[in-house]
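SAMPLE LOG
Freezer: B-3
Tube label: C17
Construct: single chain, 121 aa
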Amino acid sequence: MAIALDWPRWIGVVCEDLESQRQFYVNILGFRETNHGVDWAHFELAGGNLFELIQRDARPQYDRPRYQVGFTVGDIEAARAELITRNVEPIGEIEGNAREGGRWCYFRDPEGNVFELKERR
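STRUCTURE (predicted):
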C-alpha cells in the first residue's frame, strides 16, 4: 500500500525558551502569530502553511531542541498502520480529534529525527 504524503504543511521548532523564540520570530522575522498556548505558538506562512514553536519537555517527540516536519495524510489510521508494518518506529499513539483540528501521531526516521503525520477533517 502506498502512503500518500503531501509536501509538508507544517514545520515545528522544539525550543528551550519559547518566549524568546516567539519574540524573535515576531519582532525580528516579522511572522504573524495566529494562536498560542502555554507551551506552543503558531504562525501562518504563505499558502496557509503552519510554523510552530514548541516548548521542549520530557515527551519523546519534544525531548530535545530540533526541527520537525509534519505531513498531511488522508487516513491517519491506515498511514500509521502501514508505517509500522514497514518497521518505522512510532512515538506514542494517535492524538487529537476533529474538535482540536484533526488527529496526529509521531514517528522517528532511521537517524532518530521526529516527523508527524496529521489528518485534518
